[in-house]
Amino acid sequence: MRRLIMMGAGHAHLIVLKYWVAAPLKDVEVVLVTPSQWQYYSGMIPGWIAGHYSVEQCRIDAWSLAQKAGARIVLNSVAEVRADQKQIRLANGDLLDYDWLSIDVGAKTALGSLRGYAGPLLSIKPFGQFQQHWSRHLDSSGARRAHLALVGGGAAGAELAMAAARAGRTGAALAARISLVTGSQGLLPDFHPRIRKLAYTKLAALGIQIFEQRAEAAGHDLVLTDGAILRPDLVMAATGSEAFSFLATSGLAVDARGFVLVNEHQQSRSHPEVFAAGDVCSRSDQSLSRSGVHAVRAAPVLAENLRAATESGAFTAFQPRTHSLYLLSCGDKTAIGSYGPLAFSGRWVWRLKDKIDRRFVGGF
Questions:
Q1: How many CB atoms lie within 10 A of CB 192?
Q2: Which of 167-176, 203-212, 219-228 has the lowest mean pLDDT?
Q3: In the chain, where are the structural domains located?
């Protein structure tokens, strides 16, 4: 039987499997390869840190979903992709051949100047590992920290800083002092000035100190651009995405940063039997941010195109919307939202985000 390997249980692949529960692929063995039974929903991680959700509320059972969709699940990590041989090698050394491959493994945190930091360092990607490491941090005897430094000025850095401030106030974790080191571009550089202003105001109200500078690791210290030195008890890195190294040697066409290049069909530019979605890929025809919004919206198109590939059908193009709804949780059951030039905040925005997030996870 012909085989489709789904590499990773990212948001897009979970939605694809959900589509196939009602209408499975015909005469195709579907194999889901993922290192864990659980897939954590990134949109709820800040709420979990702030104490609003249990870890069980933030995760999806990929094993059960795969079984319902008629897929076989292999609990392992991928160590190598051999695109020219249509083969992947697992971390345990096993080789799996495929007729089609779909990649949705996300990315890892781009540590950059933080590499070599000698103190405790948590990176937010992959989320499954972050969840485990943060839980161990809370359970450890030295969990109560006087100074937490978040490095990264994007949406993840802002949300996690506010979540940690809330956690500190509720006693779930100590963060007597929280610093947010955004980099030289400042806070939320890709967002409209209106939402940036709302975020600055909220961070200041929570007592979070913002450093709009670059941080360089030097032993147990973070040295800022102006020479100032921070010595945090814990550093959390939300410093953007970096491609997994095995992609560069896979034989697949990749962009300058090592992400899989795909066309409007989410199809590899070099190997037509390979597809990719989510943070692991870059569109060759346009620039898209690495956001879960795009992964979720690309999923129905990916499901259609994987079916088309196995049945020699016509492909569908994924056309991202001009504007997307972004909702940033503030740790205290308020949230900041934006849609294009519009920006808004308040408890009603949190209730909207909470409803959307619970509905997404509950749908599986």
A1: 16
A2: 167-176
A3: 2-107+243-311, 109-240
Per-residue CA distances from 35 to 10, 69, 75, 92, 364 (Å): 12, 19, 5, 11, 19
The size of the chain, in residues, is 364
Contacts of 42 (CB under 8 A, 6+ apart): 11, 127, 292
Q: What is the DSSP letter of 306?
A: H
Q: What's the pTM? A: 0.92
Mean residue pLDDT across the chain: 92
The pLDDT tens digits of the residues spanning 4-44 come to: 999 999 999 999 999 999 999 999 999 999 999 999 998 99
Question: Which tens digit of pLDDT belongs to each residue from 62-114?
Answer: 999 999 999 999 999 999 999 999 999 999 999 999 999 999 999 999 998 99
How far CA 295 is from CA of 105, 179, 285, 288, 300, in Å, comes to 11, 30, 17, 10, 10
> Quick check: 336 and 319 in contact, CB under 8 A?
no
Hey, what are 161's tokens?
């800083």
Taking Cα atoms as reference points, which of 258, 7, 40 lies closest to residue 129?
A: 40
What values do phi and psi take at 362, rounded to 5? -65, -20
Decide whether 2-107+243-311 matches 109-240 in CATH topology: yes
pLDDT of residue 173: 47
CA distances from 86 to 77, 99, 166, 250, 252 (A): 17, 7, 48, 10, 11
Task: Report the alpha-carbon angle 22-26-27, nearest 5.
Answer: 145
Q: Is CATH 3.30.720.120 the right assignment for the domain spanning 2-107+243-311?
A: no
What number of other Cβ atoms are within 10 A of residue 109's Cβ? 24
129 has pLDDT over 90: no
Q: What are phi and psi of 95, to 5 degrees?
A: -110, 135
Q: How many CB atoms lie within 10 A of CB 127?
A: 17
pLDDT (0 to 100) of residue 134:
80
CATH superfamily of 109-240: FAD/NAD(P)-binding domain (3.50.50.60)
pLDDT tens by residue, 316-340: 999 888 788 999 999 999 999 999 8
Distances (CA, A) of 3 to 27, 62, 139, 150, 252: 9, 19, 43, 43, 19
